[in-house]
Amino acid sequence: MLTKAMIEQMAVNDSALANGKKLADKGCFANLKKTEDSTVYWGECAGSGKNPYRTSVDMSDEKKLPVCRCSCPSRQFPCKHGLALMLLIERGETFEVDALPEEIAEKRAKAEERETKKAEKAAKPKKQTASSIKAAEKKTAKQLEGLEMARKMTDELMTSGLATLSGTSIQKFRDLATELYNYGLPGPQLIMNRIAESMSEIQFRGERGESADAKMLYSQTLRYLIKLNTIIKKGCAFLSKKIEERTFDDNNDILFEELGGIWKLEELEKIQSFRDNARLVELSFEVVEDRVKDEFQYKSHCIDMDTKEICANISMVPSKVWSKIKIPDSCFEMLLIPRVYKYPGTSRVRWDSFTTRKLTDEDRLALISCAEESFESAVKKFKNYIKNTLHEKSMMMLLPVASIGMAGVNLLIEDAAGTRIRVADAPLESGTTTNAYCTTSFIENAKIIPVDMKNVGAVFGKMFYDEQLGEIRFHIHSLITKEYVLRLM
């Protein structure tokens, strides 16, 4: 079923969507037709040329987004004519039933043939030739060499102390980190750049006399150093095993991404890391600018209504093209996803297409039931999670809440057992900032909601450890009641 959310998702940018709406509103289409099974729609749209553009929308594959085709010269897919035709379909415009045009049938057949070949290629085991094994072995050996170089750098830093990393030595550290990219290790390179960024910030804070912030940054930098050391040790064992067993395609390990590997959908298909017919509800949408990676990150935090797992769909856009492309949209309805792919060892997911429907009272009750049993069980789960030095020192969670209220100057959440957790803003990673499209502080927004609410149901957000105060805190992203979901992000 075609929805407005789906059409907006498909639009290349806001301008294309706006132009598509204008064409649909002006009645520029004629000869509107569709197949008897209502899977293919087509029509003619008046353009600037002598002949009208022939536009079609193919929705025969329910697991994928509609395929738009048009005879116009635009290089945008879908073009404004395709968007306009989809809007007419969504609005319930009248289409006359007719036989599928031969032109569309031929293109459809070719597309099906390509998909069949692609599926056969994916299903067929990749043949390991002597030359491909030798190339993979050479690449892996170079990565091991790079990890050894990184080990020497971290050992020297841990021996001399973080305080020695300042001024020109920070730039030298950055230059050495850049070398890791040449060894095929963008993951460790990123962590080293975060260390350098943190130390630069510490130096700046120290000069301004902001010792409390500097202390927090020192703790963060130490965590980066510990994580890097773990990646080096485990990465060496992981890569050495590959060379020893001569198995270079088996990447079903969190270290694959930590070393800088990038998953492809066909690879996730191969290891069957996916789930069909998923029902997800988005509970927050973060937009983060990462200066270290020079990119913007769009993080859609969702909960799987069937597995009760929290996941995140993350889109990364280079800063230099950020202003030129369409920003991913947030969704306030139930996401119905034909196939959702899961990245091994992480909560990250990805999907190609989806439809939506309105959330019902039953959905919200089911959403509340997805929460952890209690604060006690949630804290235990959180502590076990952060024991892994490869994991972030924070965790997205859905907590059961009996009430939210103020105790002096502190905002607290409380469960049915009377256990309380203080609400606060979670610190950002070094070199990152939350951009203007995001709410950055629940405390600031607390004044616009009834903070003494009883029987809230559940709160969604980020549990983290406040190292300065030595206690676990919670950054609220959304509130869930039987009547509504109040999103703060």
Q: Give the terminus-to-terminus CA distance.
A: 28 Å
Helix percent band: 25-40%
Radius of gyration computed on alpha carbons: 26 Å
The outline comes out as globular
Multimeric state:
single chain
Tell me the strand order in the biggest sheet. Answer: 4-3-2-1-5
| Major β-sheet profile | 5 strands, mixed
Could you say how many structural domains there are in total?
Answer: 4
| Tally of individual helices | 13
Number of strands: 18
Q: Estimate the mean pLDDT confidence.
A: 84
**Proportion of residues in β-strands:** 25-35%
3D architecture notes:
The longest helix is centred in the middle third of the chain and has 35 residues, at 211-245. The strands form three sheets. A five-stranded mixed beta sheet has the order 4-3-2-1-5, with helices on one face. It has helices spanning 4-10, 14-26, 80-91, 102-123, 130-160, 168-182, 186-207, 211-245, 254-258, 265-270, 361-369, 375-386, 442-445, and strands at residues 29-34, 40-45, 53-58, 67-70, 96-97, 274-290, 295-304, 310-318, 334-342, 348-351, 355-357, 394-407, 410-414, 420-423, 432-434, 454-466, 471-480, 485-487. By secondary structure, it is of the alpha+beta class. It has 13 helices and 18 strands. It has four domains: 4-123, no CATH class; 130-258, no CATH class; 272-366, OB fold (Dihydrolipoamide Acetyltransferase, E2P), CATH 2.40.50; 371-487, OB fold (Dihydrolipoamide Acetyltransferase, E2P). α2 (14-26) crosses α3 (80-91), α5 (130-160) runs antiparallel to α8 and α6 packs antiparallel against α7 (186-207). Keywords: Metal-binding, Zinc, Zinc-finger. One of its GO terms (molecular function) is zinc ion binding. This is Zinc finger SWIM domain protein. Residues 110-123 have a biased composition (Basic and acidic residues). Residues 53-90 form the SWIM-type domain.
